[in-house]
Amino acid sequence: MDQSVHKELPALFALAHDHSDAGRIKFVEKLTEVFLAPNAALTSHETKLVDELIKELLKNGGQATRQALIQQFARAVEAPRELAMRVSVAPIELARPVLAANENLTDNDLIEIVEKQSTDHAAAIATRKQINEAVADALVTTGDVRIMHIVAENLGAKLSPRALSSLVDSARLTSFLQEPILARPELTPENAIRLYWWISREMRRETLARYGFGPNKLEISLGKATEEILASLLLKKEDDTAMYSLANWLQERGALTTQLLPQLLRMGHYRLFNITLSRLSQLELPLIDIINTSAGGRMMVVLCRAIGIEKGNFVSIFLMARGARKDEQIVHPRELSMALEAYDKLEPEMAKAMVECWRLDPTSIRQRSNEPTSIAATG
After folding, report:
1. What does the pLDDT average to over 150-176?
2. Which range of residues forms the domain containing residue 319?
3. pTM of the prediction?
4. Number of domains into which the chain is organized
């Protein structure tokens, strides 16, 4: 190591024992003189000792001492690369100005710091006036939402297609990322439509005005978004709170339709299936629970006919809805045949009238739910 620096170490360690305010300030000056010496080359043991002294000052040195230390280290903002690197791995209170503004640090230096130091160090790098694509990629790859938000807001950061795609993916379920990403000049129509159904109605209006998606594209992207959110909440499919929230999400986007019902059953979303039936028919959820488990299934025929479920979807629903039962889950071919016959015989207007009666007098459903009446009697 540099001999001039080496000569300063005994005095430095002697000052460490002076706990007076004046002694602390003098210690800070001597410590930064050693640490920030341009030709300093401390051994690993000496580096460890100096680091421990710095951390001790930051933790227990008092406000005046900490402020003096921070001010001394701020001098390294324009320091040469080697010294800037030494400061950049110091505690974040000291490293932040250098990480945010030192222009001698290379992209490789910054990427190394992002990968090896704390998220606070990465967050400081994310505030730099200019950030090249490679560094932005490293910052986004951390997966830290706070860092991603800083990058998204920083218009001096150049985003690669990969980084932008990662930000869009994260923004779907992290609302405070959405606004800064939508403001990015790099945002393509393809990425905008991937994010479209995950943002608020007001944001959707603005995005539609900016990109002018065609109806078919919006419909296709809604189908993809619906499938993704249903899959993401499979582990919560028995959680009523989560399923009500999901139903609200789908309804607000116009996705809570009769066409969705078979998809819900195929994915095992039985609770959401009942909630959807409840909203489409305007019947209380407990009544739907009864209808879906009643013997014979004749009330399910009435309900499906009343809300306009097409015959093909009705067959899928009739066969798959049985999976929600804890006992009998297999539909006998004769039972399906009788259900189809009842479906064909029952006029939609009659079915709607019957459902309206159920709304007015729910006790009729409860009374009839356990009757062993054949489904063929319906109509």
Report:
1. 95
2. 246-379
3. 0.75
4. 2
